Amino acid sequence: MSAHxxxxxxxxxxxxxxxxxxxxxxxxxxxSAGEVDSFRTASLAALSAHSKSDDAGATRIISTxxxxxxxxxxxxxxxxxxxxxxxxxLAGMPLxxxxxxxxxxxxRRSARTNLHDDETFLPFEGRxxxxxxxxxxxxxxxxxxxxxxxxxxxxxxxxxxxxPALSADPDGYMLKYWPGLNWNTRVTVPLRAxxxxxxxxxxxxxxxANTTDExxxxxxxxxxxxxxxxxxxxxxxxxxxxxPGQRLPDDLYPRVGA
Length: 258
Hints:
Elements: H1 13-22, E1 24-27, H2 33-49, E2 52-53, E3 62-63, H3 73-78, H4 81-91, E4 95-105, E5 113-116, E6 124-125, E7 129-135, E8 146-149, H5 163-168, H6 173-177, E9 186-189, E10 196-200, E11 205-207, E12 216-225, E13 229-230
Antiparallel strand pairs: 1-10, 2-3, 3-4, 4-12, 5-11, 6-13, 7-10, 7-12, 8-9, 8-11
């Protein structure tokens, strides 16, 4: 076991309890300073080589697409043993990686990210999904850190709404379909470079625009129940020729720690 891969007993119980109660958790110093420098350099290179902008979605986020699938530093980050160990401890079950990508909010040109949950976009069916959001620069409130709706992952059904419902009301679909969430506490979490947040796939979250003069650079790792099956979502492409209900193959969606 590497110096950056803790045994489950080394992960603070309060972190696990916070995640399960609130639907998110903040883990300081997930990466060392040297790792942050290396992964940030690789992230910027990947954005320079190939990226897309979410102009249609109005967030103006610039991102890569499945960049972790190529060998190199960003695959190493997606499969980072410390991230994986924390994720499985928080979820309480084995997981696999299905996405790893760079997200960039440019200085003074970005927009806020609307309140949403990741499960709406999830093309899989499983017991749990969660996202690790790794800061590769200091992310203050002004630079666009995230705000979470505490406990929103534990709301009653429906489990998720369809993408048409989101498209019809991207600013308010969560509060429309789950009006009780209007009274959930909102927690804003600024991060230092190397910090990480984990959030449940059903946790509502949002982010402010980057109003600073510096880029906001982060890396997102999406993880899913190791026993998950493919559930098509219109407009969401996944690698591989999967059929509905199929278990995810290990070669395309590797198990954490494999």
